[in-house]
Records
---
Amino acid sequence: MTDLEDILARAWSRVSGCRLVAVAGMDGLLIERHPAKQDDPAFAAAPAPEAIEHIVAEVTTLFGVAGGAMSRQLGTPVAELLALGETGGYLARRLTPDLFCLFVTDATADLSNARAEAEVLARELRGAFV
Amino acid sequence: MAASEATRLVDEARAVRGVLAAAVLGADGEVLAAAGEGAALLERMQRTATNALAAAEAFASLLDGLQGDALGEESDDPAGSGASEEQEAESHLTVLYQDVQPLLFEPLAGGDKLLVVAVESSADIGRARFHLRRLRNR
């Protein structure tokens, strides 16, 4: 019915080392993800469905926290969050007050590329759905 | 809302991945259009919606009474901000029944119709709700 899945699939393919890309609501509910189908070979490398639901909820909380003193100090709302570990990381970007996109990457990902693609994805999604 | 419009909404809702059944109901629970996997599921959707509508009506009456009391107490507030803004705001209600197959309720424009869908699992709730709101706002 929509090309939301296609948009996410294109973003996923443009970020080397990307394990998963998703769109979620600021109420903590996952809307769509890629890879999403269990018969997709890339699905095995992505976080499990239950795990990504928890991750999305945590990112929502982080945006909420960053919307306080951190945003006030900047003078603009925090629009992007980056969380890194030795085996990979998370890049979340606000699309609208209600939506954000999330990239989950492995340790090989080029984060500057991921940030640039998150910007492209945000533009595409805003154009298509907002 | 014409029957064809209700049917179109049901068909488009059914096209969303994870949606098992969809129905457009009137304010009294009357089915205007419906399609889905299994008569039992559709029957459950209608029964739940009818019960939810009755409960919502009772809650709305209760809240109207409470808001009336609150307005009376704050009537000398020169800003008149909080309560009056709430009264002017358009209300939307999405109720989730997360048992076997979660049900989502999305009020349609005008407030006298309800789009109800059953989704396969809780993992489909966010996607379905996102697309239902887009359908509602068309």
---
Amino acid sequence: MCGMSPSTLAEKVWERHVVHRVDGEPDLLYVDLHLVHEVTSPQAFDGLRIAGRAVRRPDLTLATMDHNVPTAPGPSDPISERQMEALRRNCEAFGITLFPTGHAGQGIVHVIGPQMGLTQPGLVIVCGDSHTSTHGAFGALAFGIGTSEVEHVLATQTLPQRRPGTMAVTVEGDLPAGVSAKDVILGIIARIGTGGGVGHILEYRGSAIRSLSMEGRMTVCNMSIEAGARAGMVAPDDTTFAYLEGRPHAPKGADWERALEEWRSLPTDEGAAFDREVLIDATELRPHVSWGTNPGQTVTIDDVVPEPNDEAAERALAYMALEPGTPIREIRPDTIFIGSCTNARIEDLREAARILEGRRVHAGLRAMVVPGSMLVKRQAEREGLDRVFTSAGFEWRDAGCSMCLGMNPDQLAPGERSASTSNRNFEGRQGKGGRTHLVSPAVAAATAVAGHFCAPEDL
Amino acid sequence: MRPFRVHTGRAVVLDRADVDTDQIVPAEHLKRIERTGFGPFLFAEWRKDPDFALNRPESQGATILLTGPNFGSGSSREHAVWALEDAGFRAIVAPSFADIFRTNCTKVGLLPMALPEATVRELMDAVRADPAVQLTVDLEERTVQGGGVRARFEIDDFTRHRLLEGLDDIDLTLRRADAIARYEATRQPWLPTV
């Protein structure tokens, strides 16, 4: 099949991982890397125990604590502690490497894989977390799975999977100044909708995608799930290889050359057909801000809150306490959150710090930065970014998922409104009754200074 | 996994699109390390409204959920499926489902049935007209009927077989242990290990 006719990136990675194939059944796919965290794994380990099964490849499995971890000094709640303790116990019992709280390598699962060089082109990567799509930025096929599937991968290092369709999302042209990777993906989701990618693997293509750094590509791929897609991918290129070279788990010496040869064979062949195609004009993109309760309910910073066109939009407006016709720039948040697997890498922090340098957070606003990993935190401190943030009035926290999903004490109070660099604006996502507006790190930083939503150019 | 063949029960209408897993079971309730006991947290925030569909007297004891498109969007948390199952649900009818949620359902034995939007509407109307109406889901026949509506739903043969027999995926895969070992022997030596 592969090599006979032109293939897409996704098809090539898929075909290279088929362990077993029979008609009428899903393909059995091999998993190269399985990432594990404390929330979606305890029941999977219990399942192994009950069935008397071992973990087949502890050497292809890495665990970290991220969802629950406190990011400020002080006691963590006993229920979270119990879940983290379960992960500690399970990793010890099953021989899995764990980066617990306090470990220099600890961080958000989708930040640490790439920074260690474990995330590489052409791999199949899974994790019990929907934002596993992040790793697709390297040309890996990476997708989120449920706990039953986590148990399946632990026991067999494989997953039965039906091959999704392929969808090309081509973003062509130069991105205007001030438009970030976050605005690209919010713009795509606003266009195709939260169900627009269901049943498909997205391949982000075009000159605007090629021009993004690896971290920008991770931001784009990260939110593929917000368009309902099974996964999102970007073909590996020199940007990818330059990012990987020298990282702790990247191939070295002669292995590096062999790997490069393999990786260069991955990009979609000329003439390969996608099941669906979408074309986006990069030159028309602007900074985006979500107004509703799903990531598709998003407009540009220059827009107004739209008139509701269905019941869902009416519900969203009521929940968000917004009036149609209100300029986005007139909305005033209470809290600024810079963090999450979407936007808490070093480039995100540099971009926010660049805007905050010599400025102050608007009076009365709460603002926090939660780096994506402890390594990102240390690097930012070496660059002096922490001092920029704290001088501006931001809290400088330890790594974790934090206010992205409010499983730790970092939460919005009922009715509180945030400008957040995270990925989901669902009802209650950042705390019961909390109102989330999704933005880029640049918009979050500018908004922190102005006290209302704005672009850096407005300052 | 509990086998699913034929199920008859009452239905409840949750007429909303894009119901995400954060609504089905909010994150604060994901801290349990057990597989059971999530039922009380199903739609925890929405249930605070006494008029919420699942709170109405006529909805009590319903085992089939009729709902809008893109049900189960968002996170991969299987806890959402466990909560529905623990609250007594056996089947969900919607115009479409989010991918991970649908897979999670079929691993647990909760039947996701995608039907055309118009058919879902007909079923919703029938249940609204008479909340006591019994719907029968027949996985063998791939049909759902009741309240004057009869519809056929699509489900692939393999998933249907697994659900009918209540087969454990891991057992099925372990029968391919030789194929897995053969594949592993061909993996490039430079591939990363932790």
